[in-house]
Design brief:
By secondary structure, this protein is mainly alpha-helical. Helices cover about 55% and strands about 0% of the residues. It is elongated.
Length: about 110
């Protein structure tokens, strides 16, 4: 599986952060210590942290047009369902979320 990459351009800080951490969270299992116990604090791996941040940032988006909000909700559901899966599935879900979020447009928060 390839680590997700791409140009991340958005004027919405919450979407930008979600795009960034989903790219990070798509790292293959075992690479760069993403799945090392306590790598992001007590009881949390870096991949766990990526899920937590992505979900929190997406939940903060309130200015999305309806079509974009539906896609954001779909990505949120994917992330929440895979949050406790095995690391390979979590990496795949992060890569898919990253891909989907790159096609979402959200205006800046006011």
């Amino acid at each position: 599986m390839d680590h997700a990459n791409g140009e991340d351009i958005t004027d919405n800080n919450h979407l930008a952060e979600a795009i960034n951490v989903t790219r990070e969270g798509s790292a293959p299992p075992g690479s760069a210590g993403y799945d090392e116990p306590d790598s992001a604090g007590a009881g949390m791996t870096l991949r766990d942290s990526c899920f937590h941040v992505a979900i929190n940032e997406l939940q903060k988006i309130h200015s999305a047009p309806q079509e974009s909000q539906e896609e954001i909700n779909r990505v949120l559901q994917m992330l929440q369902e895979a949050q406790n899966a095995d690391n390979e599935r979590r990496a795949r879900v992060m890569a898919k979320a990253h891909e989907l979020l790159q096609d979402v447009w959200v205006p800046p928060e006011q």
